[in-house]
Design brief:
This protein has 11 helices and 12 strands. It has helices spanning 41-56, 72-80, 93-98, 137-146, 161-173, 185-193, 204-212, 236-240, 261-275, 278-287, 296-317; strands spanning 6-7, 18-19, 29-34, 60-65, 87-92, 113-129, 152-155, 178-181, 199-203, 216-222, 248-256, 290-294. Strands 1, 2, 3, 4, 5, 6, 7, 8, 9, 10, 11 and 12 form a 12-stranded mixed beta sheet that branches. The longest helix has 22 residues, at 296-317. The radius of gyration is 19 Å and the shape is globular. The relative contact order is 0.19.
Length: 322
């Protein structure tokens, strides 16, 4: 049962691209609203696209970091923006495909946005400290079955993608795990490396620097394929011999509903061109991200699948907001 999860205790970008605060960009400037603070992988992606959009078009581009409320503040700002094609959201699942199942929102994720393009996904991973006795995912499963509820996994927050992914794993493996939510990846990783928690479900982007430094290991990835920067690490589906265990943290661009289709098409073409550059692939590898380029229809399909999957998991596990 999904309810076997037991709730317990409780990210430098490309230079030269402007940050903006409360003041919106001028009408001839494209504003990319990012639901995360400067310095993380999502912010780095936004500045990469901002730089290349400026180089390939006659637009000025600013990156506007609006963290807070799990991405809902940024999403609401873009939902309320003029649909003129000059304000877009760099979106990911939390505020769009998870939050609607948990609380009332000031915007409608299904109707207040129009898709532009998909640019990346960052699969989730199951990680341990480098000297952990767990060598494989099978080791974790065996131990959890012998001592139900005695082994904890850290997540990046209650109802986050990492929390729900850990829930998905426990259901598929028929094990009980103690859930320890943190306020983001950094404190959870700190406690993982410090031996406070034995396991962490986090994105490949978050864990990759620790793996490279020899401080952590990844036991399995929630991806349909092995990741280039985690060569030799099996997928969760391979280990468990079952489908439906992929957990990508997709990233794409959305515009306010009512944005002219001509403008959507223009932005989509430019963004996809940047996404498919060889240098973009190299940049992604340094961030632990997968180069998943797609048009508006591909993003819409990804969002629909994500929305349904997390809704089912949240309902079945009885997960509620804190």
């Amino acid at each position: 049962m999904l309810r076997k999860i037991i709730c317990g205790i409780a990210m430098a970008g490309v230079s030269g691209i402007a940050l903006v605060g409360a003041t919106a960009a001028s009408a001839d400037t494209l504003r990319i609203v990012v639901p995360f603070s400067p310095g993380g992988a999502q912010d780095t992606l936004a500045r990469w696209y901002a730089q290349h959009l400026e180089e390939r078009t006659d637009m000025s581009v600013v990156v506007d970091n609006r963290p807070g409320a799990g991405g809902s503040l940024a999403a609401d700002e873009v939902a309320q923006a003029d649909p003129d094609g000059w304000t877009i959201l760099q979106a990911s699942g939390g505020a769009i495909t998870i939050a609607p199942h948990l609380r009332e929102l000031p915007y409608d994720p299904q109707n207040d946005f129009v898709q532009i393009a998909m640019i990346a996904d960052t699969p989730m991973t199951l990680a341990v400290r480098a000297d952990s006795p767990f060598e494989t995912l099978d080791d974790v499963i065996e131990a959890a079955r012998e001592q139900p509820g005695e082994y904890a996994f850290a997540s990046t927050g209650h109802t986050s993608v990492s929390h729900l992914t850990g829930t998905l794993l426990a259901e598929a493996a028929d094990i009980e795990l103690l859930h320890v939510p943190y306020q983001g990846a950094a404190p959870g990783l700190s406690d993982l490396l410090g031996g406070i928690v034995p396991l962490m479900v986090t994105s490949a982007a978050s864990i990759d620097p620790m793996v490279a430094a020899g401080e952590a290991r990844v036991l399995a990835v929630f991806s349909p394929i092995e990741l280039p920067n985690l060569e030799g690490v099996p997928t969760v589906e391979e280990v468990l011999g079952t489908d439906g265990l992929n957990s990508p943290v997709w990233t794409g661009y959305l515009a306010p509903a009512g944005t002219p289709q001509e403008r959507i098409d223009e932005l989509s073409a430019a963004i996809q061109e940047i996404c498919e550059l060889p240098e973009t692939r190299d940049r992604y590898m340094s961030l632990g991200a997968a180069q998943t380029c797609g048009d508006a229809a591909a993003l819409a399909e990804t969002m629909a699948v994500d929305f349904e999957r997390w809704g089912e998991i949240i309902q079945a596990a009885g997960i509620e907001p804190e």
